């Protein structure tokens, strides 16, 4: 669903949302690491690698929405 927005507007909105999401995710991951993880370098490496991959799952859907082509009107291109 594109809500009638042009691709240019969707990309701008998506950029703002993506930046906010990345900031929120980084702060959440660091907070959990500081207060919940035991002092183990191996566990921290696995935790940060996993968290570094997981942020992209919701971002994938946002990027897909941003890249949708604009809705074209019927007959606008002479066809």
Description of the molecule:
- The protein is 70% helix and 0% strand.
- The protein is mainly α and 79 residues long.
- Helix 1 (7-36) runs antiparallel to helix 3 (56-66).
- The longest helix is centred in the N-terminal third of the chain and has 30 residues, at 7-36.
Core attributes:
3 helices, mainly alpha, 79 residues
List the helices and strands and how they pair.
Layout: H1 7-36, H2 41-54, H3 56-66
- Mean pLDDT over the residues: 89
Oligomeric form: single chain
What order do the SSEs take from the amino end to the carboxyl end, as H and E?
A: HHH
N-to-C CA distance: 25 Å
How would you summarize what this structure contains?
The chain has a domain at 24-68. The longest helix is centred in the N-terminal third of the chain and has 30 residues, at 7-36. Helix 1 runs antiparallel to helix 3.
């Amino acid at each position: 669903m594109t809500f009638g927005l042009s691709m240019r507007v969707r990309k701008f909105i998506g950029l703002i949302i993506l930046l906010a999401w990345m900031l929120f995710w980084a702060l959440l991951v660091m907070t959990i690491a500081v207060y919940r993880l035991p002092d183990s370098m191996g566990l921290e490496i696995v935790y940060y690698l996993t968290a570094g991959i997981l942020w992209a799952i919701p971002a994938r859907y946002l990027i897909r929405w941003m890249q949708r082509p604009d809705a074209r009107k019927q007959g606008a291109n002479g066809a």
